[in-house]
Amino acid sequence: MSPKPIYPDIYRKPESTSENKMPFINIKKQYLAVGMLVFVALFFFNSRPAFQCQFAQEVATYYPTIYGITPTYARLAQKADLTRLSQTLMLVKNFHWIVIEDSETKTKLVENLLKESTLKYTHLNVKTQKSKLSTASGVEQRNIALNWLRDHLRKVEDKRGVVYFMDDDNTYSLKVFDEMRKIKKVGTWPVGIVGGMRVEMPLVTNGKVSGYNAVWKPYRPFPIDMAGFGINATLFLDHPEAKFSRKVQSGFQESEILKYFTSKEELEPLAENCTKVYVWHTRTQKPSILNPKKLKHPPLPDDHIEV
């Protein structure tokens, strides 16, 4: 009998080796598939800001509302100032903008700007009552906003919030809004480019306000700018008499409203113990517009365009 050929055994060995490699190849394929799924998921969510915005909006409901009170008046730069401010406020979580026009009626310019802003807002108007006793601006406007605020807070279940008085041409870092959410009663922080100084600020010793770095009327009870403090909203319910006064001169309105809620020693210094500037008292320069009637070649009429 002839011996069995050895060739079949030789050829079976590579087949056995190939079978041993298959599980390793399958494992590599599994890792590759998982990696591809992770890559697709990351790409999908990074390219879908709508989902990110919806999530951020849901988280924002856990933040106390900031009520920003902004008096405004008709002028050539009004829309530009309000546009710049509104686009900052769009980035602030849980913000309610109360805009009060110094006018007998609400204007279409402000009404349309607020509607297009996507902000939560309240639009009010009241005309300034001129007085020989005081040239302070924004008195009637801020007071009517406080009346609205009290009515609003009485109706809502969640009364948590902060009231912040904002000029329409100031410059605000988003950090100042993060700071004011820490307020228990009345918080304060520095303001840049105000009162003839680079920065006007409370002086802090051992975590308490001990004085003020101010040169413009430093004898004021609270020599700080309107942009330099925020007040717990519920305090306006506790003190229904708290308001601004037409009997008080410009520069003393801050002290007039703060006297109802706090003393110097009770102020809460924020912005790293009042060492950081997150708001600036900027002012828009009055535009210089040529009178077309005095030009040799007058331009085309543009009165029909809102600026």
Q: What does this entry look like structurally?
A:
This protein has 307 residues and is α/β, with parallel strands linked by helices. Helix content is 36%, strand content 19%. It is built from 9 helices and 12 strands. It has helices spanning 7-46, 49-60, 78-89, 108-117, 139-155, 174-180, 235-238, 253-258, 271-274, and strands at 65-72, 95-101, 120-125, 161-165, 171-172, 186-188, 191-194, 197-205, 208-213, 229-232, 268-269, 279-280. The strands form 3 sheets. A 7-stranded mixed β-sheet has the order 3-2-1-4-10-6-11, sandwiched between helices. A 3-stranded antiparallel β-sheet has the order 7-8-9, with no helix packed on it. Strands 5-12 form a two-stranded antiparallel sheet. Helix 3 (78-89) runs parallel beside helix 4. It starts with 6 loop residues before the first helix and ends in a 27-residue tail after the last strand. Mean pLDDT is 86; it is low at 4-19 and 48-60.
Précis, in short:
With 307 residues, the protein is an alpha/beta fold. It is built from 9 helices and 12 strands. α4 links the parallel β2 and β3.
